[in-house]
Each structure stands twice: as C-alpha cells, then as structure tokens.
Structure to design on (758 residues):
C-alpha cells in the first residue's frame, strides 16, 4: 500500500512548487494489473524490451548504415575529432550544398568509439549498444509515466512517490514493445533517435527534480532547471527533435506544477480579467522558469543555426513529393494524410517499411480521393481529445489528456513539414518520442474502460494480448532488419509502388552476382519512377557488363539528361562510348564527370585507359597519376602505369613507380607481380624472384604468376624450377597464353641437355 505523505510545516503556497496534491482520481484504483515494487517493475520492463530486440544483435550493417558508418570518414582515427563539429551526420561538410544539415555530432562520436573499440567495422558492438540504449530508455519510462499519469509528489525527505505504479508499468511496457521502434533499435543509424530520447527523458526528469523540497526551503531549484536546459541541448546534438523537450517542460510546469486551466486562462485574457494572478500564470516562479527554458532554447537554436549555415538542406522531389506540389491545398491535404498514417502506425504497427518515399504513398490531388476519410478520422479524434483536454470539468482528465497530446505532437513538430521541408514522407524512427504520448493516451483510455467494465480481468487479458502480439511482431521485424535482403524483400508487400524498394532489392541481388534477377527489379524501379537516375545508372552498368551496349548508352544518356550533374552516370556513359569506339564522345563524357566531381579517381583511371587505347601514353600516365594522387591506394591505376612504362621500354621509370606503389600498398600481390616482371627484364633476378614468390604466397591460384616466375627461372637458367612452375601454371589454366609454348621449348631444351649428358 502506497501512502501520500504531507509536510505540515511547509506553507500551503509553497507546497504548490514542490509537490502535487493527492490526485483527484487515482488511475490505478480500477485497473486490474500487476502491482510490483518499483525495482521489479523496472527489471520486468528491461527484460521484456531486451527480449523484443535481442535477435538483432548479430545483424549486418543495412540500408543507411553504409553511408552513416562504413563510408563515413569521421569514424576513423585519422580524422581529427574537431571535424565532427563541422560535418553533418553523413560526414559531409555542413557548408556543402549537398549536405542534409543533419547535425548530430554526439551520435557520430558514439559510432567512432564503437569503431575504435571494435578495431573495425564489426556490427555486433554497434547493435548491442542500441539494444542497451532502448532497454535503458524503457526503464526510465517507468519513472516518466509515473509522473505523467500519477502526478509529481515528494516525501518529506525529497524522495519522489509513484502514485500510479500499475498504469505506469502498463505504459512503459507498451512503449518498450512497440514494433514501430524496431527501426531505431535494429537499424544502427537509429541510435540518433535513441540517444536523443535518452537525454530528452533525463532533461524532463531533471526538470522535475527542480521541485523537490530542499533544505533551504526554496520553491524550486534554478540549478536543476539549468541542468534540464543543458540536457536538452545534448539531446539536440544527438538529433534535432531533442530541443522540443524544453517546450514540454514548460507545458508540464504550467499544467502539473501550477495546475493551469488553459481554457479559464484564455477566457480571462479575452475579457482582460484583473484576477489573472489567481489563474496561475503569474504564480511565483512560473514566468521566470519559462523564460529560462525559452531563452536557453533560443540560444541553442541560434548556435546551431550559426554552425549549420543559413542555407536550408537540399532535398529532391522523390524524397518528399508533397512539399514540391505547386498547390497549397495539395500540400496541406497530403501533409495531413501523412500525419494520419503516422497515427495509424502507432495504433496498428503491422505494415512497416524501411522507406516510404518514391511512390509508396501516391499524392492526394482531389477531394474525391477516398483517403480523405483518414484525414477526417484523424482530426475528429484530435478535436475530440483537445476539447476534452480543455473543457472537461475533471482537472485530472484535463492534465493527462493535455500531457498526452503534448508528448504526441510537440516532438513530432520538427518532422511535420510545418517549419521546413523534411527529406522523407514517413519515417518510423521519428515517432519514437511521439509514441510516449500514444502510450499515455492508450493507458488512460484503458483505465477509463476499466472503471466502467464489470469484468476488469478481460480487459487486462486483452492488454496483455496486445503486449504479447507486439513482442512477437518486434522479434519478427528485428529479424528482417538483420540483413539487407530480408529488409528490402519485406518492403515489397508493404510498398509495391515504391521504386526505391525495387531498386534496393535489385542492388542487393547485383552485389551477390545475380545480374539477371537484378535487371528485373531495376527495370521495375525505372518503370515506377521514370526519372530514377540511380536505377538507370545501375541498370546501365549491368547491361554494359553483359555487352548490351546500345541499351546501356540509352539509359545512361537519359540519366545525365535528367540530372546533368550526375558524375557517376557521365563516367559510365564514357565507358560505354569507349567500348563502342566513339573515343571523342567518351573523352568528353569523362571530362564532364570530372567537372561535376573534382575529386574522382575512378574517372581519371578510366580516362587513362581511353588515352592508352589511343596510344596517347603521356596523357594516360598523367590521368593515372591524378587517380593515385586523389586515391593513393588505387591499385589499378598504379598497375596500369607500371605496365604501360614496361611495355614502352621505360624500365627504370616503371621500377620507380612500382616501388612507390608498393610503399603505399605493401600487401597488393598484383603490384608485386607487375614490379617483379619489370625487375626480371632488368636482370635483377634475385629481387624479382622474391617478389614473384611473395605474390604467389598471397594468391597461389594465379596461373600467370607461376607462368611468369617460370619464365624468370627459364631466363636465369634454373630450368628445373622453371619446369615446375610451368606445370603448376598449366594445371591451373591449361589455356594460359604462351605458357604451353614456353613449356614445350623448355622440355626440348632439357631433352637436348639429357642427350648431351648421355
């Protein structure tokens, strides 16, 4: 039995600032549920939340993880730590026109720590941290929901009381097992949302501590208010939504600490009532605290704006088609439809998808579209809840509904398209925090039903059933996030009209070498979105490799026509034109690619190949040198330089280039092989032999390595060793060019020597 303690020595006015009076109606009274001590409740929540997502611990890097982690140079030790504060989440400079302006340096820092401790890109450590973070957040939710549902009250010793142990446990369990959270937990990039939520909750709990009774008898602690602002800033440095906690703290202060009646206040303001001070607005400290919160928030936003730059992020129409609609009506209707879909994902998280863009949700362009019903249903529910939150005579109901709506709506505002364009249609990860509001409303609704129901245990069993179903759904969805193949294929049934889904399935198949199946999905992606230049580029690449050059050229030409600055497509078009022996056009395409991407080593490499085909040797060497300057580990460019210099008789220069290359890439067996050939021709047999043997050790099944070593021994006079390696080479590749002839010459020579010896 939990009892409410009161300190008779504290004046009545002061009690307002450090405790809630006993709640008008106890939510737990009519609820049939488990009553557990706080410690055990948290243990249960931690275990259940772990159970939901445990099977994601050994998953791969999937989807956005590649760009945010594997290809992000900010994770590597050689990148100065200071760069994290000037780069966006993906490792691009914030000043760049291509930057998405997603400023999350603390999240990137945790990725970097993961990388350094693991000694490389091993996903297990990344996944384990995400699971631990979600479990920690779920445990904190027990305290948060006990405050939001039961009110804020402290004992004489300053210990906070849990006035709603049953309902706070239900709400925390609902949060812990919600399937919509899978993207945040099982997808490593979701750590931004997890860290943001962690510091968001710590900021809220810190703000609540400001009203704990202290020895000096102050009404509130300025220290804890400032700590709350700092934690809010940290939350924002993990993800942009974090800043919204300051607004929620202000709402909580007004409703819970000051028991502000919003409707009554509005009426008095409207009638210029002189008794406003009795309405709670000017109660001691409220305006001061809200001023602290708002000025802190404004300062944080200004600093971020200065770091980020004044330019908005650059998004394309395929990212968020509604935001590019010319009609304000179309934009408004579709934004509201997106809100209704987000609400549906909270209510029924069965159809989940890693990406909702690119035709997954066709635009509503007319009021005759049946999907308007979803908007009407959303606003009918919202207006009903808002009316109850404002007009109900039950102050307890007003408080809980307002807090529920506040936690549902305020953290969602940065993703709402109201203040700036966002780069997605729907993103499951952005409703991680708003789901707190959903859990409050759901739990409150359950308590109201329990109050009316005669068979309360049936309701409890129903809620328990929802929790079990959600646990199973989380486990299933987590398993789908373990690999890209499962993740992408799971989206085909949810968003069959999404071109990006088909593109990603095709790319995954192509990476595994299944080009025929990949072509089918790439073609479908282009059919669904005729302006999908990345699908055209990848399809063109496969067709080029299959020697279907004319169709490849058509696709790549269309891609660069749609997006003239698409450097990769220009380079691939140049490769196709080179294969079609249209050398001037190929050269022009390569230079256009370099114009749009100044640091493009692969393009310089292909340009060098073109010049080599045209016998423009100096131009070829210069192009390959540029490639190695931009990318010192570009093995192919180094190799081609060595081979060209070797073939043109510049052995000394070829040797110098080979040695330079091996200093930079000491374990590259192809470079060892090329340099060994040059040294052999220069009659540096011993050094050449050592390099050949080292190359063979690294790649023992390369027939050419054994064949050329045999030639070296043949020249050197080590005929028995030459015979041995000729035979190994022919065993590995019976059709190796020249090897059979050289072997036959050697055998005849050995036979002649035997006859002379005989």
């Amino acid at each position: 039995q939990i009892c409410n303690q009161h300190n008779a020595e504290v004046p009545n006015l002061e009690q307002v600032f450090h405790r809630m009076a006993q709640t008008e109606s106890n939510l737990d009274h009519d609820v049939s549920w488990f009553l557990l001590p706080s410690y055990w409740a948290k243990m249960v929540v931690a275990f259940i939340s772990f159970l939901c997502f445990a099977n994601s611990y050994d998953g791969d890097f999937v989807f956005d993880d590649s760009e945010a982690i594997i290809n992000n140079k900010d994770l590597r030790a050689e990148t100065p730590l200071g760069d994290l504060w000037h780069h966006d989440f993906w490792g691009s400079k914030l000043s760049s026109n291509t930057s998405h302006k997603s400023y999350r340096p603390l999240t990137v820092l945790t990725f970097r720590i993961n990388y350094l401790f693991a000694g490389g890109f091993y996903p297990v450590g990344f996944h384990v941290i995400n699971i631990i973070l979600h479990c920690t957040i779920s445990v904190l939710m027990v305290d948060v929901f006990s405050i939001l549902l039961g009110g804020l009250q402290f004992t004489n010793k300053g210990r906070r009381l849990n006035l709603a142990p049953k309902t706070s446990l239900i709400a925390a369990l609902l949060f812990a097992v919600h399937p919509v959270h899978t993207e945040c937990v099982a997808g490593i990039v979701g750590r931004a949302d997890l860290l943001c939520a962690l510091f968001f909750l710590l900021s809220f709990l810190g703000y609540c501590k400001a009203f704990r009774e202290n020895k000096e008898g102050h009404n509130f602690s300025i220290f804890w208010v400032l700590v709350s602002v700092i934690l809010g800033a940290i939350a924002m440095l993990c993800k942009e939504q974090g800043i919204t906690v300051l607004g929620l703290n202000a709402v909580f202060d007004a409703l819970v600490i000051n028991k502000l009646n919003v409707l009554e206040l509005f009426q008095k303001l409207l009638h210029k009532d002189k008794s406003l001070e009795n309405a709670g607005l000017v109660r001691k400290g409220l305006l001061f605290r809200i001023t602290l919160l708002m000025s802190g928030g404004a300062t944080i936003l200004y600093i971020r704006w200065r770091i980020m730059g004044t330019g908005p992020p650059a998004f394309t129409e395929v990212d968020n088609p509604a935001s590019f609609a010319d009609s304000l009506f179309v934009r408004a209707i579709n934004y509201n439809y997106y809100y209704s879909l987000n609400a549906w994902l909270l209510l029924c998280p069965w159809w989940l998808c890693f990406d909702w863009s690119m035709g997954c949700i066709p635009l509503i362009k007319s009021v005759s579209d049946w999907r308007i019903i979803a908007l009407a249903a959303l606003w009918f529910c919202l207006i009903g809840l808002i009316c109850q939150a404002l007009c109900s005579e039950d102050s307890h109901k007003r408080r809980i509904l307002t807090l529920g709506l506040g936690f549902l709506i305020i953290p969602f505002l940065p993703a709402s398209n109201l203040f700036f364009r966002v780069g997605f249609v729907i993103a499951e990860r952005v409703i991680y925090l708003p789901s707190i509001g959903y859990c409050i409303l759901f739990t409150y609704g359950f308590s109201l039903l329990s109050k009316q129901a005669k068979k309360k245990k049936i309701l409890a069993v129903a809620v328990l059933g929802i929790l079990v179903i959600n646990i199973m759904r989380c486990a299933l969805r987590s398993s789908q996030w373990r690999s890209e193949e499962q993740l992408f294929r799971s989206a085909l049934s949810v968003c069959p009209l999404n071109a990006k889904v088909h593109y990603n399935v095709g790319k995954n198949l192509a990476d595994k070498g299944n080009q025929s199946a990949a072509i089918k999905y790439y073609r479908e992606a282009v059919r669904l979105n005729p302006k999908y230049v990345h699908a055209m580029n990848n399809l063109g690449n496969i067709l080029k490799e299959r020697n279907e050059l004319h169709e490849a050229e058509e696709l790549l030409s269309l891609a660069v026509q749609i997006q003239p600055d698409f450097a990769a497509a220009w380079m691939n078009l140049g490769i196709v034109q080179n294969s079609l022996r249209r050398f001037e056009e190929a050269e022009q395409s390569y230079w256009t690619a370099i114009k749009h991407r100044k640091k493009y080593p692969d393009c310089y490499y292909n340009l060098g190949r073109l010049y080599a085909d045209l016998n423009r040797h100096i131009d070829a060497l210069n192009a390959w040198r540029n490639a190695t300057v931009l990318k010192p580990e570009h093995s192919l460019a180094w190799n081609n330089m060595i081979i060209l210099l070797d073939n043109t008789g510049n052995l000394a220069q070829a040797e110098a280039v080979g040695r330079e290359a091996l200093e930079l890439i000491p374990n590259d067996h192809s470079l060892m092989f090329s340099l060994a050939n040059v040294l052999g021709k220069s009659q540096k047999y011993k050094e050449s032999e050592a390099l050949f043997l080292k190359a063979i050790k690294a790649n023992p099944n390369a027939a050419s390595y054994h064949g050329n070593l045999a030639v070296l021994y043949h020249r050197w006079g080590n005929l028995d060793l030459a015979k041995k390696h000729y035979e190994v080479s022919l065993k590995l590749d019976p059709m190796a060019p020249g090897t059979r002839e050289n072997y036959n010459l050697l055998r005849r020579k050995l036979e002649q020597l035997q006859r002379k010896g005989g």
Q: What stands out?
A: The chain is about 65% helix and 0% strand. Residues 131 and 325 are 39 Å apart (CA to CA).
